[in-house]
Amino acid sequence: MTDFDVELLVVGAGPTGLALALQAVDHGAVVRVVERRPAPFRPSRAMVMHPRTLELLRPLGVTDALLALGMTSPSMQLHLRTRVVPVSIEHLDLAGTAFPHLLLIRQADVEAVLASALAERGLVVERGIEVVRLARLSQGGARAVLRRADGGPDEDVLCRYLAGCDGPGSLVRRSVGGFLGGDYNEEVVLADVELGPAGGGSRRVAPVMLEAGVAHVVVGRRGLVFLFDVGERASWRMLATRRAGEDRQPFGQPGPPVPQEQLQGLVDEAGLPTQITEVAWSAQVRLQHRIASRFSRGPLFVAGDAAHVHSPAGAQGMNAGIHDAVNLGWKLAFAAAAGRRLGAAAGTDDGAGLAAARPGSALLDSYALERRPADRAVLRLTHAMYWAEASLHPLAQLGRAVLVPVVAPLLPWLVRQRRLTAAGVRTLAQFRLRYTHSPLSMDLRASLTPVRGGLARRGLRPGSRVADTLVRCEGRRVRLHALLARPGVHILLQADARPVPERMLGPLVHSYRLDDRPGTGMLVVRPDGYAALRAPVLDEVHLAAWLRMVGLPVR
């Protein structure tokens, strides 16, 4: 059998690659992370983390650090022609989560927190190293050639699995499949700026300062303009859309700096009462909407921007990438551990050991089967939002010109409808996402007598997110997600269920009895917080089969 240098090689140290590595390490994998950029800092593009993303990261122990660096429930002012509508999302009616809010946080801060967590586990990101060639091996695994930016010799690495989190121009994705979609006719302008009061006799803007501590948003006929005071090289970050120029730089790579007069022109055109007094950094970035034709091929996987790219509408980029990472990380770790056991069993010529050590192909196949449809749905959502908010297509411009004056008077009432706002946030945050048709989702309730109680009700069918409700376990009241906030598979038992046999438990398989949930049912929760196996009684045969399917040993 192949003697691998490392079980998992992660290519790319953005939020997706770091989260994937952290999830894999916490589930037992030996991981190496390489990043071609020599330094971690670069001006952030992503600025918003959704509540479901915080839930996914909670078992990795990083949410407290993220919350300390970000701003929860930022206030906004929506500028619609002559009307300014304050929008507060501080008190969302989001039940069933410990994070009923958005988090405004720089991507650079997210990367720093995740990299620090990896360093605490003994894994340091190797920067200034690029994958220049890779190949799948006939006997399993992959070979990657690493090139150092400092001119050192190339390095050959044999890995059991390789995860490409290396952005839109991913070498790994080109080895996996195509990139389906197209270009937008618009580009995004990003800048870190200092602002002063508007004036100078301009009749287009009022001589007042924009309110600090508030995100200012303009939806106009010519597109979007955002201004919020979370800049990295200056106080304010500006984001605006405009028609793309003729100098078409590679997608995802920042183009030349944007002159201050052009930035001021975008602000003036939006009608914002402010003057740009200094530009500390600026860039223009072409936009695309694309998705990989395949998310995996043999030992090669892609995630994040390497797998899908879309407009900034809905703040989905970083969040969708972390969803990919948390979904894939534990699966690669479990498959790698099963591979180790397979090798050990082969050395003892133990046929039963070989069968027990080999995970079902459904485990790794489930990544593409689950995440590609989910990411395709996100792509459709962001495309529709972007077309409505910022497209320069004549129909989109006409729609905004007609609808904005009609909708503007209704907005103060609409934003006070907390349930309506919460419903929108639930959709954007992917709370409604379900992996119902995944091979890892098994429901025994359909053919057996259902039981009363919390675990067998319709809302917890396999493939759905497990809500963060209050439960009683071992005599104390605790939130369910706090109970599950550690790596591994979690088996939830109703109060009258038989206990899980010890031979099925282990360092990454935990069992909990919910004293306030009457009945005999069982629910298996995956490491990423989705229900997997549901049964009206403790079903040892199906439980053992599911554990073996995901590569876990059953003694």
From TrEMBL:
Do you know which Pfam families this protein is assigned to? FAD_binding_3 (PF01494)
Cofactor section: FAD
**Keywords, alphabetical:** FAD, Flavoprotein, Monooxygenase, Oxidoreductase
A molecular function (GO) held by this record is: FAD binding
TM ranges: none
Q: Where is the FAD-binding domain?
A: 6-335
Keyword field contains Membrane: no
PANTHER family for this protein: BINDING MONOOXYGENASE, PUTATIVE (JCVI)-RELATED, TRK SYSTEM POTASSIUM UPTAKE PROTEIN
Q: What is this protein called?
A: Monooxygenase
